[in-house]
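re: ur msg from earlier - yeah i can do the uracil complex, just paste it... oh wait u already did. ok heres what im feeding in:
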Amino acid sequence: MSSKTDSHHAFVKVVDDLIQRLHHEKEEGLQHVEVHPQTLKKLGEHPLKKKGIAMKKNTRSISQAEDAVKVQDALEKIAKRVSACKNCPLCETRNRTVPGQGNPSSDIMFIGEGPGADEDRQGLAFVGRAGKLLTKIIDAMGYTRDQVFIGNIVKCRPPGNRTPLPEEMKACMPYLKEQIALLKPKAIVCLGATAVKGLFDPKIGITKLRGQWMSFEGIDTMPTYHPAYLLRNPSKKADVWADMKTVLERLGRPVPEKNG
Ligand code: URA
Ligand code: SF4
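and the outut:
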């Protein structure tokens, strides 16, 4: 027997044992099993179905994990298209594309303007100074960064960190729209003037709008100040915290006491 067949048999045996054990636990009253999306993906590659063993979607956590795998796969496909994109001149000066990253089952999405120098180097959204402040805001809300999704209006860094031009935002929007349609967050937090202009209207500003719910393709969207603006104007942090409390209330999540 080849070693490939050996390891295949060993794998089938492990899965069989696991299934028997789960049946037993189910009889004992077990109702939910958390399955990591990657594990489920691997199991899906295995010919369990051919063996007549139904991967029953009898627990909510399993079907949720399956959905998360599908969304993650689709997000990765978008990121791949972004990495090859030449739909606007920003492709000429970028080092890395920054498609946005986070949890495929997130109920909340944070949308900023576009990559800065650190993001352009790492290919990740909000990893520089403004990103550190965004992490603090996310933590204060009772999330961790890997529980949420963080993205931007444009996926390539504008040279010298200038504001993206209206044509660049327009060229890049289809990617963000696809990401939003996949993630279907319960709320979007729109960080700063550029994000509001990109999502809604190039003519509108942030000062008048912040703190008031808007609707982007049917999703509750809260405009607030950008973390980079907060670094320059720390006294505005209270406004952002008020806006984040409004968001948490709408999501039905507990509002933690803010300290610092
Ligand atoms: N500012 C943004 O708007 N987005 C980032 O990813 C980083 C800084
Ligand atoms: Fe393409 Fe967007 Fe990058 Fe422009 S900013 S090249 S539209 S990915």
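cool cool. The pocket of iron/sulfur cluster (ligand 2) is lined by residues 82, 85-88, 90-91, 97, 154-156, 168, 171-172 (CB under 6 Å). ping me if u need the other ligands too
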